[in-house]
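Ops channel
N.P.: pipeline sanity check, posting one input/output pair.
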């Protein structure tokens, strides 16, 4: 059956790309057939540990078909919780500020985004399985493998390796700009090679990767 995993790749230090480089990162991911459009652009209060497909506003932007201008919010979970995300619930609120099929249209959309003042994310529909390197890494095609590029107004931390249904804790890595993607089955370990290639172009060659599953 497989277990859903969210994997991330980030620079060794938690710095934020310039608006222009963040846009070029998104464009390169599509042009080099790592991801498929359409893309969506969201801005607000985002949690880099929110499960992409099942609880995040990124997932809402990808799956729900909300019109541009919509405000997307996490579901309210009643009762207190002592555990931070991903072990506890994530709370997000963001506005959908752009959507499109043409990847170059993401650049003017980013120019009007509150970049650096709010958390910003470019959400892609799924990984591109016409790319042989993507197809060879995973065991079969799956259009639920969404990918999100985050540019966070303030640093957040991601676990390097954890089951989000287990006890909270373990090694963490601070991030501001990072790439997160979802998958259920993979034939290989480590950062997906075509993602690593583009990430190194913008983040530097010293990359940090990790996974959360459950």
């Amino acid at each position: 059956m497989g277990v859903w995993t969210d994997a991330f790749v980030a620079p060794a230090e938690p710095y934020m790309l310039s608006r222009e480089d963040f846009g070029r990162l998104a464009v390169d991911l599509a042009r080099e057939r790592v991801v498929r459009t359409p893309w969506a652009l969201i801005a607000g209060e985002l949690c880099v540990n929110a499960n992409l497909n099942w609880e995040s506003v990124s997932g809402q932007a990808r799956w729900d078909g909300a019109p541009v201008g919509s405000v997307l919010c996490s579901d309210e979970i009643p009762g207190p919780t002592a555990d931070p995300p991903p072990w506890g619930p994530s709370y997000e609120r963001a506005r959908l500020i752009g959507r499109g099929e043409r990847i170059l249209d993401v650049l003017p959309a980013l120019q009007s985004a509150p970049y650096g003042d709010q958390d910003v994310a470019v959400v892609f529909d799924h990984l591109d399985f016409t790319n042989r390197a993507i197809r060879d890494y995973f065991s079969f095609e799956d259009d639920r493998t969404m990918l999100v590029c985050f540019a966070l107004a303030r640093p957040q931390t991601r676990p390097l390796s954890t089951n989000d249904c287990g006890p909270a804790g373990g090694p963490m890595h601070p991030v501001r700009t990072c790439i997160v993607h979802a998958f259920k089955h993979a034939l290989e370990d480590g950062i997906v090679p075509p993602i690593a290639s583009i990430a190194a172009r913008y983040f530097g060659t010293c990359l940090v990767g990790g996974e959360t599953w459950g």
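N.P.: looks fine end to end. The two ends are 13 Å apart (CA to CA).
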